[in-house]
Amino acid sequence: MQLLPRMQKTMLFLVVVFFLFWGTIHPAWGATEIGIMTIETDTTWSSTASPYLVNSLTIAPGATLTLEQGTIVKFSRYGKIMVNGRLIINGLVGNQVVFTSLKDDSVG
Question: FRET partner for 50 with CA separation of 20 to 30 A, picked from 9, 20, 67, 71?
Answer without folding.
Answer: 20
